[in-house]
Amino acid sequence: MEIFTVAVAGLLIALTFFILRRRSSSADNLPPGSFGWPVLGESVEFLFGKPEKFVGDRMKKYSPDIFKTKILGEKTAVICGPNGHKFLFSNEQKYFTAFRPHPMQHLFRSYKPKESAAAPPPQPQQQQPPPSSKATDETKAIRQPGFLKPEALMRFLAKMDSITQQQLQAHCAGKNEVQFYPLSKTITLTIACQFFMGINNPERIARFVKNFDDVTVGMHCIMLDLPGTIFNRANKAAAALRKELIAVIKEKKAAIATGAPLHDILSHMIVASDPSGRSMPEPEIADKIMGILTAGYSTVATTMTFLMKYLGLNPDIYERVQQLEIAAAKKAGDLLEWEDMGKMKYSWNVICETMRMVPPLQGTFRDVLEEFSYGGYTVPKGWKVYWTVSTTNMNPKYFKEPERFNPSRYDEGEAPPPYTYVPFGGGPRMCPGKEYARISILAFVHNVVKNYRWETVDPNEKVEGDMMPEPQKGLPVRLFHL
């Protein structure tokens, strides 16, 4: 027995020495920073102290280029500034791949079919792909059929314009004051449901909005599943959305069986199969559609909302956005055409400036595929990298008078330096929905300035939220009908 004990002790000592030696080879040159508290790391400061402040404070304390932390359960390197943007975008799939934080993995779970009795047992050496792998990436489902290519969006533009007009009429007609954040969300989700799923059911969409709000907040939170917590509400909302989406899928299947055309991504998912001939199970389709809708929902609605705020605070900019020449060239009932999008260059400048002032998404995460060096420091394989847009947006080195809302800074010849303004990311993982977001917000701007003037009720309304900002009171505005 003593010999066995001594052998085990010797083995443990050798194993400990081996682990420490491996760690020391790369850990000696880790980026500066702190992992914070045991288990929680610095997640509380990151989530509740606002990510942009969290990053800005540590850039000043540790390094303006890179620092280490532990957030949402992962050792993480935060790479900052335009050089950081360039390095990240240039090394996708070499050093980095997409990573979903654990709360997001749980909410948009990877569907695993039950094993049948006839199925062969898994091989011991076979590795299953992680939830963050390409196999579960919604962008793959979007890119392949070409739904977000200009020619597809060109066909949908008139419908987008029509939906925007209908929603503004339904929620603003005869009213002197409107909360625009809830309205922006309804408009955005109505357009998304029509585009991605081919449905336009106001009652169903109204149910969607509250659940998508809870899921969006829960994507970056502490995973404490107790009654009343953010994560608990998000779990319940995701389950409700999944149930509703499966009902939509069944309805869509029945329509396809009768010969309905395949004009949307949901229909494509239903009829598609993998190389083995396996069709995608309904729960998996529901999860992918839920991810797609979430991605195209809150960010677009947030930009629409804060655009309303800045136009309300800047009447001179509103005057330039009015686009009277586009409206004058159209007869009653005419809808926007693709050529009109090219005439809205200043409106796009306003949208860009809105996203600089209030980024609709603070950042995203990457998984480190291979150990790499950056800024004189080493980041080990298996760590995560946090990419954030907020390290350049308000830097006077890149944006003169950064606190001033100035759309003219994007005029030709005045554009910001490369990699300083990247609201849609860059490289192979640039947001595939950039053009969809652009035309949906332009259609909104065109219709709202054509029909209304407005002023913000509270110019100093606070902005809440962590990864995704929102106005504390829903941005109430006083409307003046034209």
Automatic annotation (TrEMBL):
Keywords: Heme, Iron, Membrane, Metal-binding, Monooxygenase, Oxidoreductase, Transmembrane, Transmembrane helix. Its cofactor is heme. InterPro entries: Cyt_P450 (IPR001128), Cyt_P450_CS (IPR017972), Cyt_P450_E_grp-I (IPR002401), Cyt_P450_sf (IPR036396). GO terms for biological process: sterol metabolic process. GO terms for cellular component: membrane. Transmembrane segments: none annotated. It holds the Pfam family p450. Heme binds at residue 431. One of its GO terms (molecular function) is oxidoreductase activity, acting on paired donors, with incorporation or reduction of molecular oxygen, reduced flavin or flavoprotein as one donor, and incorporation of one atom of oxygen. It is found in: Membrane. This is Cytochrome P450. It comes from Perilla frutescens var. hirtella (Perilla citriodora). The lineage of its organism: Eukaryota, Viridiplantae, Streptophyta, Embryophyta, Tracheophyta.
